[in-house]
Amino acid sequence: MSNLQVKDVSDAVYAELRRRASAEGMTIRDYVLRLIERDQARPSKAEWLRRVRRLAPLPIGAAEELLADRDNRDRELDDRSRTA
């Protein structure tokens, strides 16, 4: 197994890593390793763009439908928050 050392981490970043690791019941080492593994499981930006380019284009009007749905959802959430 390989080792990795990160130098010049600011005190603020280190403190936040420590806080988040503690909140997860983990060591900083395990928390950072999990972050790295999660990042590596995702496609790179270039790979993601290649995949998106292979998708069929959305039909004309799809964007307007999505925006209308989003507006309706936002109104519903606003209504709920006012009655809560």
Description:
About 70% of the residues lie in helices and about 0% in strands. By secondary structure, the chain is an all-alpha fold. It has a domain at about 1-40. The radius of gyration is 21 Å and the shape is flat. The termini are far apart. The mean pLDDT is about 95.
- How would you state the average pLDDT, rounded? 93
Low-confidence sequence ranges: none
Separation of the first and last Cα atoms: 53 Å
Structural category is mainly alpha
Biggest sheet layout: none
Summarize the amount of helix as a percent range.
over 70%
Oligomer: single chain
* Overall outline: flat
The string of secondary-structure elements, in order, is HHHH
Strand content: under 5%
Number of DSSP helical runs? 4
User: What is the C-alpha radius of gyration, as a whole number of Å?
Assistant: 21 Å
Number of strands: 0
